[in-house]
Amino acid sequence: NHPSGDVSPCDDDIQLTRRLVKAGEIMGIEVLDHVIVSEKGYLSMKEKGFI
């Protein structure tokens, strides 16, 4: 949740992405991306190198 509209990932976003990727690996599901969206734009964790 980014109510300010800033799509920059916070530490919690980065940790959540890492946890989702690890959980996906355990279940055999590839996480393709984790996207932060606001009225001002979006940020792809994959494009930024977090996945």
Verbal overview:
- The chain is an alpha+beta fold and 51 residues long.
- The protein has a single domain, classed as 3-Layer(aba) Sandwich (Cytidine Deaminase, domain 2), CATH 3.40.140.10.
- Helices cover 33% and strands 16% of the residues.
- It contains one helix and two strands; from the N terminus they run αββ.
- It has a two-stranded antiparallel ribbon with strand order 1-2.
- A hairpin with a 2-residue loop joins β1 and β2 (41-44).
- The radius of gyration is 11 Å and the shape is elongated.
- The model has no long low-confidence stretch (mean pLDDT 93).
- It comes from candidate division TA06 bacterium.
- InterPro entries: MPN (IPR037518), RadC_JAB (IPR025657), UPF0758 (IPR001405).
- Keywords: Hydrolase, Metal-binding, Metalloprotease, Protease, Zinc.
- One of its GO terms (biological process) is proteolysis.
- This is JAB domain-containing protein.
Low-confidence stretches: none
Secondary structure category: alpha+beta
Per DSSP E runs of 2 or more residues, the count of β-strands stands at 2
How much of the sequence is in beta strands? 15-25%
CATH topology grouping: Cytidine Deaminase, domain 2
Shape: elongated
Kindly report the name of the CATH homologous superfamily: Cytidine Deaminase, domain 2
Q: What is the averaged pLDDT score?
A: 93
Order of helix and strand elements from N to C terminus: HEE
Q: Any idea what the CATH architecture is?
A: 3-Layer(aba) Sandwich
Domain MPN: 1-51
Protein name: JAB domain-containing protein
InterPro entries: MPN, RadC_JAB, UPF0758
GO molecular function: metal ion binding; metallopeptidase activity
